[in-house]
Amino acid sequence: MRAGIVVFPGTNRERDMALALARTTGRKPQMLWHGDAALPAGLDLVVLPGGFSYGDYLRCGAMAAHSPVMRAVRDFAARGGYVLGVCNGFQILCEAGMLPGALLRNASLRFLSMDCHMRVERTDTPFTNRFQRGAVFRATMAHGDGNYFADDATLDRLEGEGLVALRYATPAGEVTPAANRNGAARNIAGILSPDLRVLGLMPHPENQVDPAIDGTDGLPLFESLAESFAAAA
Amino acid sequence: MTDQPIPLAPERAAQLAAEFGLKPDEYERVLAILGRVPSLTELGVFSVMWSEHCSYKSSRVWLRELPTKAPWVIQGPGENAGVIDIGEGLAAVFKMESHNHPSFIEPYQGAATGVGGILRDVFTMGARPVANLNALRFGAPDAPRMRQIIDGVVRGIGGYGNCVGVPTVGGEVNFHPAYNGNPLVNAMTVGIARADRIFYARATGVGNPVVYVGSKTGRDGIHGATMASAEFSTDAEEKRPTVQIGDPFAEKLLIEACLELMETDAIVAIQDMGAAGLTSSSVEMAGKGGMGIELSLDTVPQRESGMTAYEMMLSESQERMLMILKPGREAVAEAIFRKWELDFAVIGRLTDTGRIVVRRKGQVEADIPLAPLESEAPLYRRPVAETPKLPVLDPASVPDPAGIAAALQRLVACPDLCSRRWIWDQYDSMVGGQTAKRPGAADAAVVRIEDHRRALALTTDSTPRYCAADPEEGGKQAVAEAWRNITAVGATPLALTDNMNFGNPEKPEIMGQFAAAVRGMAAACTALDFPVVSGNVSLYNETEGRAILPTPAIGGVGVLEDVAQAVGLALPPGCDLVLIGETHGWLGQSLWLREITGREEGPPPPVDLVTERRNGDFVRACIRKGGVRACHDVSDGGLLVALAEMAMASGLGAALAPSPTDLPPHAYWFGEDQGRYLLAVAEAAPLLEAARAAGVPALRLGRSGGEALVLPEGEAISIASLRAAHEATLPALMEGV
Questions:
Q1: Rounded Cα–Cα distance for residues B723 and B719 (Å)
Q2: Which of B176, B309, B423, B461 gives 20 to 30 Å between its CA and that of B338?
Q3: What are φ and ψ of residue A77, in 5° steps?
Q4: ipTM, 2 decimals?
Q5: What residues of chain A lie within 8 A of the CB of B429, using their CB?
Q6: Is B324 exposed, middle or buried (0-12, 13-18, 19+ CB in 10 A)?
Q7: What's the predicted TM-score (pTM) here?
Q8: Do A213 and B426 make contact, defined as CB atoms within 8 angstroms?
Q9: B443-462 residues touching A, CB cutoff 8 A
Q10: Backbone angles phi, psi at A206, to 5 degrees
C-alpha cells in the first residue's frame, strides 16, 4: 500500500501516523505539502492527520479545507482513492464537504485528552475488516472540538445507510452517555462516505500501534487498510 | 540626525531610571560607562539587561556552588538550555523556566507564553522538543481568584502545548496559602538532538548578517523582564500590558522552519528572543562571541506602525528568533522561512567593536559597550540570615485524633495528594506516539526516542513546606526526590535543571533561604552524580511584602536503554510488597501532621545522601534485572499513602503485615522518612535476600489482592471509596469555573 500524509501548517500528528503506517505496511508513507495542487501518482491512501491546521484560529479545519491540496484530495476520492481523516483531518473532511456534519466544541468546553473506547459498527469496510463485529477498541482522544453534530435527517440517513463506522462506548461495548465524553450526536466517533472509501474519526488509533508504548488496540484499523490493498494488488 | 544618541534631560533620565527599576548606584554606573546621560533606548537596554531576571545579579554568587560537570554533560549552564549525552549519538537538551509574575496577572497568556518561551530555548539549540513538563504552585483553593487562576494556567499550558504538538507528560502541583498572591508556573521542555549537531548562541564572524525570523514585533510585553524583577502590590492588574500574547501556531511553524534550516550549514549562532526580546538576544549573542553588533531597526518586521527604537528593543512579542548566518546563506534561509509563511529579515551585522549600535530612521538610538551589559553586569553578595533550625518533633508527642483508615481517606483527597486527572486530562500527553508512561502511570514520565529503543525518564519535584522549615534539607530533598522518581521507573538519573523561586532577595532571610537551598542541592547533586545543566531564577515572588515558600523546583532527566524496562506504579495482582529503606516515623512537616492535626511544625525529614544513593542504586539494579512488577517511591503522605496510590492506580488492594517497629501506628504509616521505595514482586524472599546481601534495609509489607487495603488489625479500606474521594477533589473545586 502506498500512502501519503498531508502536512498543513500546524499539523502535528503526521509523525505518529507515519509510524503507524510504516509499521503495518512496511513502507514509509510520503509526506504531502498543503500547497501542492497535485498528488503524486500511484497513491492508494491519503491521510489527513491530526493537529491544529492554521492554528484552528478560524473554525477547526476551515482554512485547510480550502488549501490547494484539498482539491486534489477531493478528485482523488472521486476517482476511488481511499482517504482517512483523523481528528483535525476529520474536521477538514467535514469542512471540505467530503463527509457530512460538523465537529463542535466539546460539551464540557474543555480540551479532552484521555483514553476512549469505540465500538466498531461494521466490519465490511476497508478500514475495519480486521476487527470482529461489535469489537471495542481503545484509543487516545485529544481534541477541543470533537462533538459530532448533524441534523436529524442526516443522522438518520447515516444510520440507515450504515455509514456510522465507530461509536463511543464503554469498554464492555455499551453505548452510553457517560462513554460519550465530547457530547457527540448518537455517540458518533467516526463516519464513512457512501462508497466506504473515506473515513473520518476523532480519536487517534495511530497512538496505539506499539506494545512498547501504549498497546496495539489501534493496529487492526491500519492492518485492515494494508490487507485491503494487498488483496486488491 | 546624528551618529550620537540623543541623551535624555538629566533629571528626566534619573527619574526614568528609577521607574525602570535601576537603583541609584546602578544608574551612576550607567553614567560612568557611557560618560554621558543615556538616551531613552539606552536606558531601557541597561534596565532590562541589569534586571534581576536577565542578570541574575543576586543569585549568581550562590549558583556557582552547584556542580555542573560530569562526563556526560555536553553543555552546562550559560546557554539557552543544558545538553547531555544520552548515548547512541543522541543528546537531550532541556531547561525549566518560570513565568510566575505574568501568570498571576493574566493566567492563560502568562502560562501559555511560559510554555512557548521554554520550547524556544530548547529548539534554538537544534533539538526537536519531545516532552513538556511543569511545576505549579497555587494558593489555598478557596483564596480569592484562585479557581480562575488554576483554570487559566491549566488552559494556557494545554492551549499552547497541545497546539504545537509537544506532549505534556508530567508535572507537579502544590497548594499553600503562601502562594495566594503569587502562584508559580514553571515550565520545562526536553528535546532530542544529534550530539554532534548542537547550536549555540555564540556569535562569530565580522560582517556576518544578523537575521530576524518568526512573528512580527509589536508593542506587547515591553518591560516584561522589569516587571518580573519586582514585587507585586495591589496594582498587579495594571501591569497587564507587560504580559505577552502567545501564538502557538506561529511557534509550531518556527520549530519546523528552524529545524529544517538546521539541516543545512547556514547558521553560525542562534538565540530566541525571550525576556528583553531583541535587546537580550543581540547583546548576549554578540557578547558571548566577543563581537560587536549593529542593528538597523527599520527592517524589523513590525505589527504596528510608528514603533520607536525603545519600543522595538524592549518588546517581548513572542515566537521570534535571532540568528547569525554565514555570509551568502541568506537566500537559503529565507526560502525555508517563506515556505513556512514566517517573516525573515536581515536587520544588522556583526562588527569587531565590542559595542551594540542601534539605528532607527538614520538616527543612532543606542551605542553601548557590550561587556558591562552582559558579562560585567552588577553582581551582589547580599546579606544572608540563616533560617533558624526547628526542634525535632517526637512522634510519641503527637496523638492520633483520627485513626488510620479515616486519616488515609482524608489524605488521599486533600489538595496536595488528590488526583491530578482534572489537570492532565486537558493536556495532550500522547502526541508524538512515544509516551510509554503518561501522567499517573509511573513516578516519572517515560518517553521513547523515535527510531530507538532508548527512552527518557522525566520528572519535576520540590517540597516547598520542607524548604520553608529547613531550606538546606529541603534543597537536598528536592534533588533526591527527582533522582528517586527517575530511579523508580528503572532509569539512570543523568542531570537536572532547576527553577529557583524565592521572595525578595534584598531581605536577608530570603537570601538566607536561597543560599541554604543551593547548599543542600549542591550536596545532593554531588552525592548522586546528578549535575545541574541549566536553570532559571525567579526572585521577588512577593505580594504586599508576603513571600512565597522557598521553592527550588527540580526538573530531572534520566535514561533507560530499553523502554521495555520501564516499570509503572499500578499494583499488579498476586504480588508481594516490599519496602526498601528505613522507617522512623518522621512526622515533622508531614502532610498527616498538617491535614489531620492542622499543624505545620518541626523540621522536615532529613535526607541521608549515602543511604539515598545506596537504596536507589539497589532498586534500579533490581528493576534492570527484571521481576519488579511495579515500583513507587514513598514521599508525601508516607507509606500508607504510597500504598494507596499504587492500589488506586490498578484498583487492587493488599493485605498488610503488622509493623515490626514500636512506633505509634500513625507515625509508622504516615511518617515521611526519605530514601524509601515500594516494590511489587512475585515473591519477596529473593528480593529480601538480595537486599540483605547489599546491606539495604528491606521489609515485606504484605501481598496484593482483593478490593481493599486490609490493615494488620483487620480493618479494610475500600479502594473504590479511596478512589472516589481521590478523584472528586479537583473536579468539585473547579466545577462551574
A1: 6
A2: B309
A3: -65, -40
A4: 0.96
A5: 113
A6: buried
A7: 0.96
A8: no
A9: 448, 450, 453
A10: -70, -15
